[in-house]
């Protein structure tokens, strides 16, 4: 787990909410506090869909689907009071990271690799995390995930400091 303090809040929020940069990530949950608190559970509800569509459904919605809703909630002249988003790496990315030679954890043991995004008091903090299907002592998956997120943020032009 690594905490990264974003140094240019406006740039980060613009990238998060107004670009496709994070669109492949899955949304575990989101919470936006403006004049009310709006909570989004990213789990897809299979009963909403036809029975023939259900087998192909992922567990969570993509950020691409949820992003416009969050953008509508925060746009305007006033800044939100807070914003909290938990994004998960999509399954193909988890597999790619597990295949990295530095990772000694089988992809089947990785339940999720997450990025917690928190906006409070004008500051954005990104905290990486992971969960596994069973207890493991090996932290190489965490290290590979942390390194990936640092590279991704830098490639997006999003500067940060280790918190």
Structure overview:
With 163 residues, the protein is of the alpha+beta class. It is built from 4 helices and 7 strands. It has one domain. The longest helix is centred in the C-terminal third of the chain and has 16 residues, at 140-155. The radius of gyration is 16 Å and the shape is globular. The chain starts with a strand and ends with a strand.
Instruction: Please outline the major beta sheet.
Output: 7 strands, antiparallel
User: Uncertain segments of ≥5 residues (pLDDT<50)?
Assistant: none
Beta content:
25-35%
Percent helix range: 25-40%
Q: How many angstroms does the end-to-end distance come to?
A: 11 Å
Order of helices and strands: EHEEHEHEEHE
What is the total domain count?
Answer: 1
Short note summarizing the structure:
This protein has 163 residues and is of the alpha+beta class. Helices cover 28% and strands 29% of the residues. It has one domain (3-162).
Map the helices and strands.
Layout: E1 3-6, H1 9-18, E2 26-33, E3 37-41, H2 63-74, E4 82-88, H3 91-98, E5 110-120, E6 123-132, H4 140-155, E7 160-162
Antiparallel strand pairs: 1-6, 1-7, 2-3, 2-4, 4-5, 5-6
Q: Which structural traits does this protein have?
A:
28% helix; 4 helices; globular; 163 residues; 29% strand
